[in-house]
Write a structure and sequence with these properties.
2 copies of one chain form a homodimer.
Chain A: H1 2-7, E1 17-23, E2 29-35, H2 37-46, E3 50-53, E4 58-61, E5 70-77, E6 84-90, E7 105-108, E8 111-114, H3 122-126
Parallel strand pairs in A: 1-6
Antiparallel strand pairs in A: 1-2, 3-4, 5-6, 7-8
Subunit structure (chains A, B): Homodimer.
Catalytic activity (chains A, B): 1-(5-phospho-beta-D-ribosyl)-5'-AMP + H2O = 1-(5-phospho-beta-D-ribosyl)-5-[(5-phospho-beta-D-ribosylamino)methylideneamino]imidazole-4-carboxamide; 1-(5-phospho-beta-D-ribosyl)-ATP + H2O = 1-(5-phospho-beta-D-ribosyl)-5'-AMP + diphosphate + H(+)
Subcellular location (chains A, B): Cytoplasm
Chain lengths: ~130, ~130
Amino acid sequence: MTSDILDKISFDSHGLVPAIAQQHDTGEVLMMAWMNADAVLETLETGQVCYWSRSRQSLWRKGETSGHVQQLVDFRIDCDGDTLLLLVEQTGVACHTGRHNCFFTSIRDGKAEIISDVEISPEAMYGQKTPGP
Amino acid sequence: MTSDILDKISFDSHGLVPAIAQQHDTGEVLMMAWMNADAVLETLETGQVCYWSRSRQSLWRKGETSGHVQQLVDFRIDCDGDTLLLLVEQTGVACHTGRHNCFFTSIRDGKAEIISDVEISPEAMYGQKTPGP
């Protein structure tokens, strides 16, 4: 099954594919991150979402530090295979800022506006260290 | 306002940023495409979503050929500025295959499964020519 599924995904020149995480029952778009082939396989095999961190250049098991894991509910591939949509059950919050999702800046009347509040302080999630995405 | 907003977006080395389109009222994730600075500005100015086509290397006014336009409802930027979320009102269908959204392939029990039907034939949308994304 492994190679069949990887064959359906068009990884970019860096071996990566963007993956959108969406809360399966509310439809909330939580975040977008990247996967390489290993992250795809681990996610499908374990049912726990694992990305590839471009900044750390390593597998990023979402929630490993914070406990805010994403349980895979459905794994979808788009029409030309170059984007993934992951339906997930999000524990806690998805964003490293402590907000429920990462898309909390809206452009309204030509200005950037913060439209959602921090639910859990980054310090409470990570201790003194606040890792980026 | 223009430069302020562009300053909040981290375009990649090709001058592009991924943009997720979501139907504003149902939460359906419709598609993911790319924008350059001109596409961002045109979208904000006109309220009609305009992407950058990487295959055609030109602005891609969504729905220009098919009539299946996306009216912008809200424009959001993620926590690190490298992904956009566009809440839209989709006319017709978003996918060039004639399906309502592009994420119609699901991996279930280790196999790829088509989970939604074609609503409008590509021939009806585009005539004899079927442009890719």
